[in-house]
Amino acid sequence: MKYIILLCDGMGDYPIAELGNKTPMQAAKTPNMDELAKNGEVGMAKTTPDGFSPGSDVTNLSILGYDPKKYYTGRSPLEAASIGISLDKDDVAYRCNLVTLKAKDNTYDIEELSPSLIMDDYSSGHITTDEAVELIREINDQIGTEDILFYAGVSYRHLMVWRGGKVKVKCVPPHDITGKKIGEYLPKGDGDAILKKLMDVSAGVLHSHAVNEERKKENKKPANCIWLWGQGKAPQMPKFENKFKLKGSMISAVDLMKGIGIYAGFDIVNVPGATGYIDTNYKGKAEYALKELEKKDIVYVHVEAPDEASHNGDLAAKVKAIEDFDDLVVGTVMEGIKQFGDYKIMVLCDHRTPISKKTHTADPVPYLIFSSNKQGKVDGAFDEATCEKGRMFNPAHNMMEYFLGK
Question: Using CA atoms, how far apart are residues 6 and 8, in angstroms rounded to an integer?
Fold first, then answer.
């Protein structure tokens, strides 16, 4: 038996007036997911346990069968693993976004942190990795110390490691506060003065950097500050193979997902052209997944595009991303997986990212499970409304055992 999980990040949503009170899943043309659903099983899964924020870290751990209450320590340690950073037991990793802050006069001429500044873009206009690497290296050279180090990741997503640092501090994800004044969302708690100082000084370092000067000439948003959040220490979690006796691979363009895969003991597969954005190589991810299934028992394919579109409030891009996922990922897998004989496919999102909120919610998410040797009969397309009539997995970390038939 071969198993594949196709994860469409942030796909779930709420009804939208512009779509005739349909959700993006209902409005999108998704014949492949609909076919799997009609001949399989659908339902809902509570991927965010009570008391947790609905981040992709928590929700994807749940889907993989790991109880966040036991194994979750923070987002950034997972991302650290993906870029080869080894954390000592007292080290604290922080996610370090390159963001664009805007002044009240709508200019980006920022040299220091001020509560009145507005979070204009959590991704600095989806800055390129080459540009970002230059900026993070400069940040590390200028404000890094023996105990505080900055590491470059992909696009706007980077890391800071604080040796012997503080972890009991409230930090808000920048994508949760797009368009809002940052004052009430700055770090609060143990060590907050140090974190705010680092963010403040970073604005001066980035202000006139050549990369930003060139971006402004090209009418692109400058990366004019860092934003620290998602802190945590290295988790201790068992390998997926030890839990479920299956060998697996992880396919994603996102460091967080790669880090989860590493801690789970999965092989990490990098796909050319996979960007973590709406221009990603959808079909390439599906084709690489099928190759992995030739030698692995289970493959986890993560597509970030709908989530990014939701954070940007771009409804058309979200519907298009869902349609591309259905056509190029699900469709390609459905055709190619037949060569393996017995197989199971699970399709779902990790959390909802409603266009109206531009951030994640803790609502249960729709899922479908299709088995090659067990045909079901579902009345309706694959969407939130149909899935609400099916089984509810609460908590969601029990769903993996069910999917695998263990």
Answer: 7
3-state DSSP assignment of residue 391: strand
Q: Based on the number of CB atoms within 10 Å of its own CB, is 303 exposed (0-12), middle (13-18) or buried (19 or more)?
A: buried
User: How far apart are alpha carbons 182 and 379 in whole angstroms?
Assistant: 46
- Is the separation of the CB atoms in 158 and 132 below 8 Å? yes
Q: Which two tokens stand for residue 125?
A: 């206009």
Query: Distance between CA atoms of 403 and 51, rounded to whole angstroms?
Result: 26
- Give the pLDDT band of residue 277 (cuts 50, 70, 90): confident
End-to-end CA distance of the chain: give it in Å, rounded: 12
Other residues' Cβ atoms within 10 Å of the Cβ of residue 159: 24
Q: Which two tokens stand for residue 309?
A: 């579109």
Q: How far is CA 16 from CA 287, 304, 324, in A?
A: 33, 21, 20
Indicate the pTM of the whole model. 0.85
Amino acid at position 76, single letter: S
**Which amino acid, 372?**
S
Eight-state DSSP code of residue 187 = -
